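Data card: per-record layout.
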Amino acid sequence: MTTPNRPTPQPGILDIAPYLPGKSGAPGSKAVKLSANESPLGASPKAVAAFAAAAEHLEIYPEGSSRLLREALGEIHGIDPAHIICGNGSDDLLHLLAQTYLGEGDEAVMNRYGFSVYPIITKAAGARIVLAEETDYTADVDLLLAAVTERTKIVWLANPNNPTGTYLSDAEMRRLHAGLRPDILLVIDNAYAEYVTAADFSVGQMLVDQADNVVMVRTFSKMGLAAARIGWMVAPDHVTDAIHRIRGPFNVNLPAQLAGAAATRDVAFNEDLRAHNARWREWLTAQLHGNAMRVVPSQANFILVLFEDAAAAAKAFETLLKGGYVVREVGPSYGITNGLRISIGSEEAMRGVAGILTEMGAGR
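The structure for this 364-residue chain is written out next.
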């Protein structure tokens, strides 16, 4: 057996395609960033004040269980704080779930255009990702269930989904859960739940309360605290027990804990952000749809715009960039080569994007 001349990663690690974040524009560029689904209204002023106040205590380790943050979340959302785990962004929690429940020879199921982190964390745990096809850019319960095998241990589902913005109703989520074996963990990734306006949507909290194999993961990143990296998860006792055994002891820093608690309680700011998003998501969709473009109906804080082909999407991306707007190309990460994902931004940004793209459509 030949000894390697340097440390080598575990088998399969170098086969994983790394996560590709949205572009921020060229260095020195003043382009408006609409590629990462960030808050157009900034952060809650109360969260900013709490974050700043934490600077007076940077020498102190944070409380290990994020107790103050969990108590705020429990208060506002009506959840027992003991069932909440906080993390360094929701990605941290998703990684922990994969590490805990997946291993060599296991499988995890996701929809075709599901969040691109799912394959990374699944493969990093030594398991195999199985893609279920979608129906019109929407997760299909029957196809997800058909992809389940005796090796399946997790079903990953972002609801609403990134990058499509589509969602499954509460009834469909319950139908999906009812079709899974009790040893399969259903992970409901609610990163965009705060922006949903559909009457038949549910975050799935009742499923978590009623079942032993459902967890709900959420984030503060889309609500103005992306830089603070705060995620949270609601899970049954046996799941929280397992996750706590491998969770980093101080995985959420003190400024983030305090800012998250303040942001949670700033209900008025969160409602303003939600209302702004709903208004301009609807407006931008109406402006673009049918003008040589198709907008996939979205319940998130972005829209997915589909063009005739990859060349048309590339031209639109470059034209927007020249006009001062950076949007997300979804071909490299998701294989939707004719699509662009556009975050809902300020009124000025939305009018600017609409002007450029409608002019392109009219000039065809």
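Known properties of this structure: Residues 27-42+268-363 form a domain with the Aspartate Aminotransferase, domain 1 fold (CATH 3.90.1150.10). The chain is about 40% helix and 15% strand.

See the next section for split statistics.
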